[in-house]
Amino acid sequence: MHGPDPAQDRWASGALGQITPHAFLEALPFNAIIVDRAAVVVALNGRAAAFIGYSAATAVGRPAEGLLRVCLERAERQQALGDEPTFEHYFNGTWYIVRVFQISDELRCVAATDVSKRKAEEFEIRENEGRLEEATRIAQLGTFKLMWDSGAMKWSPHMYILHEVSTDTFDPSRDDYLTLVHPEDREIADRMRQDAMSGKPLSGTEYRIMHRDRTVRWIRVDGRVLFDADGAPYGSFGICQDVTDTKNREHELNDLLRRNATLYEALEASPIGVAVLTPEGGPPGFFYLNAEFQRLTLHNGFSLRGQPLEALRPEEAPSAGWRAASAALQASASGSFELTCVRRDSTSFLAQLEIAPVRDFPGRDAIAYVINLRDITVDRQRAEALLQSQKMEALGQLSGGVAHEINNLLQPVIALSELGAALADTDPIKVRRYFEVIGGSGRKARDVVRQVLTFARRDPVQVASHMIAALTSDALDLVANALPPGITVSRNLMFSEARATVNPTQVSQIILNLVKNAADAMDGRGEVTVTLEGLDLDDGAAEALNLAPGQWIKLSVSDQGCGISRETRDRIFEPFFTTKPVGKGTGLGLSVVYSIVTGWGGSVRIDSEVDKGTTAMVYIPADSDTV
Amino acid sequence: MADILLVEDSPEVSMTVREILVGAGHTVVSAETGNEAMVKLKERGFDLIVSDIWMPGMDGIALLKEVRGSGNRVPVIVISGGAPNAPLTYTAPLASTFGANEVIYKPFEKDELLNAVSAVLAA
């Protein structure tokens, strides 16, 4: 098939010609087996004996079998498919690269090179890459590589996961990365890309990306420049991680810090003195004072630090307020106390002090105590001034009323005595009537003056702690004599132990007035019900009744009489206001009740429905812990 | 002799004023409140009204407003003993503002009232 070849001649005539085919075969650095067209082994080198499992002597002249046959058939298959007859083959613990080639028309050579060592290295590299991939996957790190010349971008699989895109829909070399970035952060991401392209290292660039479901994730990118073997930069390599959780925690922490700061500022700005006491293993000591607390006490955080609450107590024997406050603190109870506090400069002020224990869990020991402190010296003075001005106003109203009443009662005294004198001889019957009216007017004027004295008395009435049920019972016994025979009084005085600080005569006056009013409302026939109740009012209940929270005694006097119209109710406590038929009542009864009860710090309410009846309710502040 | 409507809630004063006026030859119709007086004024006319100021229900000032408001020019003498929020001296200007012809203060002498009645009726 080939003509004579000059090179072949040179080969035969030169030094090569001295080498036998056998020597040549032996010198080859791989396993070489030569087979003929019928796949019968023609020759092989020594090393190939191990490859095919026969010695040269036994192999030659035998048809290829075993491994040799497998290799030949595989080569033929590949050739039939148009591929190179070259392949890797693993046999008996060794990796080979096998090539099959024609030597002549008759002969083929199977060349098998042991590549186990290279294979092992390759495997190690691949395993390292695998481990790297695994590590980045566990760390949720994506890696990317950007080639500057082509602009080609290669992403690791996790990059796709991070951005929630698939390799089918997103090609990082072709598609615009910025479409994945949150619109507000595109500028940051774009600058980062330009930096990478111009060879700047990327260090902790953070921006938001948006997934297709519009969830927002925070991404952090770090990167460096890649250099080739000659030290010339050619690309960028970087890692990309999802830092959303870290970011969220950062935000939460910032929020928490901001809230803390706000709370602290709010406490500082509070117009009420606020202090915190903590036990720290012993009795509670001052831990924090806000600005107002410092202003009130002239102390600062250091001068009171660790000191007990009693550092604010005057040196003399503790007042009732201080004893109660100390006891509350010791019992981890809350409470409000009026007491005198000593400032750092030894001056003192009247204070309202509130204690509230702070517990991290209900029922556990208090971990701290919050103290609210107000200077009520001025409040107290104002309240006293207000009370005084109310008294003056009432007095003004009273004097006008008294004048009217007395003037009216003097009218018959003056005019009828003149008329009567002129008629003394001629009309003794008329004169007798005149005298009766004059005498009646005089007695009525006396009653008015007596009531006014009660009402207008400005000296403090002697008060003491009394059991209200006993006083009520005594008063009702007295009143019974003065009531019309058709009136019965029903008593509900079950609540017998409660005490209040009152004057017993005033209690009688209240009951007398209320029961007489009730009897009059029923035209002298019916039942008057007198009820005593103890009330322990929490904030809400107290507010509804317009009273201070705490313990109260409620005295109710009810009738089923004519009731009181709305217009009348508005004026009911005015002195001299009366609805009773002309000639009955002085119009001072309820205003006397009102004056006495408010003097005790109590209050009076009237509930009434026309033609159904009226209930007068007197609220008296109870002595501590008697209700 | 005049036909007089007396408006006064105090029975002692009412009785006394009636005795003075009847003794002087006048006829007197009594009312205890302003409301009652208005009812009587609707029934017929009077030559003169003598009225207290401070009464339960419709008081003397309200009565004056009602009477003058209805265009009635009947002479009115106010008899005042003062009121809780109005000292005696406030009563005269208050009453004249609302159209009283004369104000006299309780307690008054018999002649004080009779002179006032003559003066008002002569005017």
Task: List key phrases describing it.
heterodimer, A: 627 residues, alpha+beta, Beta-Lactamase, 5 domains, five-stranded antiparallel sheet, 26% strand, B: 123 residues, alpha/beta, Rossmann fold, five-stranded parallel sheet, 5 helices, 20% strand, globular
- Read across the widest sheet of chain B, the strand sequence of neighbours is 2-1-3-4-5
- Annotation, overall tally of beta strands of chain B: 5
Number of helices of chain B: 5
Named at the architecture level, the CATH assignment of chain B is 3-Layer(aba) Sandwich
What is the CATH third-level topology name of chain B? Rossmann fold
Protein chains sharing the most extensive interface: A-B, 34 and 29 residues
Brief write-up:
The complex is a heterodimer of chains A (627) and B (123). Chain A is an alpha+beta fold and 627 residues long.
Describe this structure in words.
Chain A is an alpha+beta fold and 627 residues long. Chain A folds into five domains: 6-114, Beta-Lactamase, CATH 3.30.450; 121-245, PAS domain (Beta-Lactamase, 2-Layer Sandwich), CATH 3.30.450; 267-374, PAS domain (Beta-Lactamase); 381-456; 464-621, Histidine kinase-like ATPase, C-terminal domain (Heat Shock Protein 90, 2-Layer Sandwich). Helix content of chain A is 42%, strand content 26%. Chain A is built from 19 helices and 22 strands. In chain A, the strands form five sheets. Chain A has a five-stranded antiparallel β-sheet, sandwiched between helices. In chain A, strands 7-6-10-9-8 form a five-stranded antiparallel β-sheet, sandwiched between helices. In chain A, strands 12-11-15-14-13 form a five-stranded antiparallel β-sheet. Chain A is rod-shaped and about 195 Å long. The relative contact order of chain A is 0.04. Chain B has a single domain (3-122), classed as Rossmann fold. Chain B has 123 residues and is an alpha/beta fold. Chain B is globular and about 30 Å long. Chain B has helices spanning 11-23, 34-43, 60-69, 88-97, 110-122; strands at residues 3-7, 27-31, 48-52, 76-80, 102-105. Chain B has a five-stranded parallel β-sheet, sandwiched between helices. In chain B, helix 2 packs parallel to helix 3. At the A-B interface, helix 13 and helix 14 of A face helix 1 of B.
